[in-house]
Here is the input.
Amino acid sequence: MGDGGRDSTNFWPKWGGKLNVLNPASYHYKKSKSTAVFLFILIMIAGLLMNLGLSSLTDMDGFYADKVRELHDPHVSITMNSASYKAAYRDFLSSYPGVQEVETERVILLSSATIPFYKYDLGYGIRTMVLDADAARNIAPVKLIEAASIEYKDGIYIPYTLKVRGGYELGDNFPVTYRDKQYTYRVAGFFESTLMGTPKLDMLKLYLSQASYLQLSKDAGPAAQGTLMSAILTDSEQSGTLLMDYYRAFPQSNETVIPGFWAADTHMAEDGGAFIVYFVSLILVVFAAVMVLVSLLVIKFRVTDRIETGMVGIGVLKAMGYTRLQIVFMYVVPFIWLAFAASVAGVAVSCAVMPLYGNMVSALAGLVWNGSAHAVFTLACVGMVTFLVFAVAYLSAAPIYRLHPVEALRGGIKSHNFKRNYLPLSRTRGGVHWLLACKTTLAAGRQNLLLGCIMAAVTFASVFSVILYYNTAMDKTALFRMLGSETPDVGIQVESGVDSLQLLAAIRQMAGVNKAILMESIPTVIQGQNVSTEIIDQFEYMDNQTVYEGRYPLYDNEIAVTGKLAGLLGKTIGDSIKVEAVNGSYIYLITGLNQSFSAEGKGASLTLTGVNHLIPGLKGMSINVYLQEGSKTAFMQEVQAEYGNLIRSLTDVNESKESGTQVYGSALLAVMTVILSISVLVVVLILFLVIKTSILKRRRDVGILKVAGYTSFQLIAQLTLSIIPVTIAGVVAGGALGALYTNAILELLLADAGISRVRFIVPMPYIAMLCTVIVAFSCLVSLFVARRIKGVTPYVLITE
Amino acid sequence: MPNKILRTEKLCKTFSTGGNQQHVLKNLDLEIPEGDFTVIMGSSGSGKSTLLYALSGMDKPTLGEIYFDGKNITRYTEDQLAVFRRTHCGFVFQQTHLLDHMSLMDNVLASGLLMNRNRRALTAKAEQLLTQVGLPASSWGKFPSQLSGGEAQRAGMVRACINDPLVLFADEPTGALNSASSDSVLDVMTGMNRGGQSIVMVTHDVRTALRGSRILYLRDGTIYGDLTLGAFQDEQDGGRRERLNEFLAEMGW
Here is the structure.
């Protein structure tokens, strides 16, 4: 160190020219291999999840816009029965500012074809558009992701969703049932479509070879002949505005007036498709943050522990002339290297598994997702984790600055400042092993706090994922309620031109019908915001009462709006708002706040009489039927027989919703599996670390007790018993927090998506079971790891 | 003729370190009568502590047999040895080895309760023993870090005796104590021995060794000398000190 004094401005001589920062690191790793391995795994997982989550969150931002560009897909698609088509519609689109390209083509509109969305499924009704694969087109040309090597005479090209979600492969049979007639085709290829690639926007696109197309067109008849208008804009942000202006220009643009009318824009597709990816990615990032937190807790524990156990060593180093900074860095540097290496490994693994994650995103969005790691996020992940580790390790090692060499050489100031002798053996009832275990628990406060916090964190994460999975895969009631989606037994689409109110009255009279409501949705504008407005004839009949403050409208001058919209408008219950629709506007009084997932959470609800101020004569073409138990099939057959000519489609809503949300269940099952697996790993590693450290620190105590005649098994049991109360406390705390706050956290995470109130079912039996399994598993791991006590002999008192 | 509480036959202990074998005890034959106060002396590395720990079942010999109260304990398993120690042996160490996170009383009871005794009777016995060794009630709730070296060692002796061991093993019990504390600890041990307690003690301190009734001198892993001093009365009793000094000089001490 003498050399170090010669040039105090040079950093390395100041270190004495002898101390290589790698030396203490390698020494540290050798001394505590298990901690190093534990932290490496934990930080690597955190880096992996964080990079995956952040990369996909970023990629999803421009994903739809890029996809539209890549596929040369339309920003806006409008279709209708060919008989209702007018050239003025196309002219409007062509002359609209910012429209780059417009194309019109003849299609077959199957208002409700039944197709098995999932292979081997019975199928459910989806509005389907069939196009001629051989026809020339500029917008959305047929670009196959995968095509059969042989040409099928009855070949059909189907959306990519049906491959990744539905399980179809090339060459599979694909039956399409329309008006009781089944057409069976062979899957010849898969394509992507942003607007009509999934049933989310209520339209699925299929391509048939010219011969099959012509045959189907002939069979379906003139009523199924449709016209598709597609428009590409210079700026995709304009797509919503263009569609709204179209509605203003052509107020009759709804199914009531124009048969087969359907319209969608890129924003609508993005709203539905990106949400679940966004949600899953967010969960990964949050879980990664939990992992980082756990790592930081362990580092804090280890540094403090190492300083305490190596106090004399610090005194020796100080006596030798090492500076305080040098000694502090001996404790900090190993963790920096470890965090850096682990986070680099984590992001490297994330790059490797990105294609697998991409498959899941593709299944969720229905589009091929070639996500890749972003250099910025990769560096940010590594940098952030390394910095946090440095900060925590440094702050934990900071007491070295205040440590006097003599004090350190004497082993530091003994902190055995026991104010109370807890559980004195002479007075406390209970077995000696149990009492000694409790004493050990009370004596190792900091270690137990660490263990308790980590057990609480992993239990919380596990409970969170179980609640998510339960509500998206096992009992979807709360999911539908959250999304503001009704869950009737049967959905009836009324044929254009039919008096839906009359049919509704007739349905309500049918046997087995519990209740029936008329529903419709129209686009409106409220203070410049595009709003999806639902029209219901009787709100009190709805199963999903999504109003969480105030009430649904009762009179024609009342309206309920979503909490998000109210926030955007700065309005609340009792305020008035002006609602504009295609051919009119009206001022309504806000009576309640609800939530909706559609139109970016910007929604409103009006009564059937109320909407007549905006669109006179609008009645709504969807009837939701809620049945008494056990009568669904018979009811559907009866309706078909009695009112078949008045009905365009009849859908088993439960089944179709079940199928439609199956992909969410699958995605969250994957997320739950990942979280539970990592939780198991963390439980094993933390118990291993804590017990091993405990045995190392208590070698002398174990030796003393063995001399006194305690057997290895008794000491193993004592150590396990000393860990179990803390484990149970952590698990109970984590379980309780998960049960109580999962909904609150989801509300926080989903606030941007327009969800103000989440009331997911908290399946207490499952949570209790999960917590019991974690505790039981912890006991087993503890007993297994504590077996190392066998290796400690009374001889340790002589040799150490 | 008193009963032989401890007996060894061809006792050997070998340590292997880095490929080198160190023979610490070599074919050692020994008999210790009941009620004796046996002191083991010898230079550093002579095998004193190794012999003590082998006799007490804390360590297993490499070869040979050890008979404790007539039973061969050589082939006991670790758990059998643990039960054996709790039932028959008491230990006093140089470093006291009290459990830091327990009070003095709890340190004593942690050993006693292992025998499943009546808690109230055990506590009363602990209180009696602690009072006997000069530890007042005010110290019973204190933690080891709050005790002086002599107090801690006396507490260690009470812990060692709480289960009425057949043999009390002591390894340099006064090694870390000043002379006043040493005397108080040795007085306690002498008193116990007078009450019939068998004691085997390792020491390198001549004053401490004077308390013994028999001195065994170890050299190179074997018993090099054996001196019978008889029961201790006082340090000058019957030329006790001179006899020991002569013996040690003869041994090359």
